[in-house]
Amino acid sequence: MSARRLVSLLLVLSGVILLAMAGLHYWRGFEAQKQGMRQWEERRAAAPPTLPPPFPSPHENPGIEGQAQAEPTPAPSYPYGQPIARLRILSAGIDAVVFGGADQASLEKGPGHLPGSELPGEDTGRGNCVITGHRDSHFRHLGWLRKGHRIELEMPSGQTASYQVVSREIVTPDAVRVLAATEKPRLTLITCYPFNYVGSAPKRLVVVAEPMPRHRS
């Protein structure tokens, strides 16, 4: 076999291996979402019915928004790898179970909740609920979001919180201010940027949403 033919064969094999690895990655994510959705529905069915409480009122804690932490310490009982919410964004074609944790294993399953930020359905005073996801899978359409778009976050209790996008910005990975606790409730969605970048993307897309007011009858 000539050297040229050998090189061509090796290139073809390398391409096949890369495609197989990418396919395996997407298949694992798809299967994890199926299983997570099943677990989520079971958890929902087992949860006692509750009346949806109002969003927590602002806490008197001046300056908390400036106290940025890259990764605050989660509680010992933090639900790593477990379904903790369901994220629905009609305008971006997103309907996915959110898992506890922002590590690689959790993010392969779906969008991941940043430990130490406010958990969906809880009121601990941290305010800011941070969810991150891969730009090439579950958050590949996050860039479609614009100011005014609606986001829904379903809680374990069965209630659904509705948010409205108030801002979007491109930041560098060291912009930890977007992870900081906030006085008022907030939902922060993060993914790598640009979407079409080959390799490890150099920036982050940050979409911030705030609770929509509930209409009283």
List keywords for this structure.
single chain; 217 residues; alpha+beta; Sortase, Chain: A; eight-stranded mixed β-barrel; 2 helices; 8 strands; 23% helix; 25% strand; globular
What is the annotated CATH architecture? Beta Barrel
The sequence of SSEs as H and E is: HEEHEEEEEE
Q: Give the overall shape.
A: globular
Using only CA atoms, what is the Rg? 20 Å
Adjacency order of strands in the biggest sheet: 1-2-3-4-7-8-6-5
Describe the overall structure.
- This protein has a single domain (3-211), classed as Sortase (Sortase, Chain: A), CATH 2.40.260.10.
- The chain is built from 2 helices and 8 strands.
- The protein has helices spanning 3-46, 104-109, and strands at residues 83-89, 94-100, 112-113, 128-132, 150-154, 160-171, 186-193, 203-211.
- An 8-stranded mixed β-barrel has the order 1-2-3-4-7-8-6-5.
- Helix 2 links the parallel strand 2 (94-100) and strand 3 (112-113).
- It is globular.
- The relative contact order is 0.16.
- Residues 49-71 have low confidence and may be disordered.
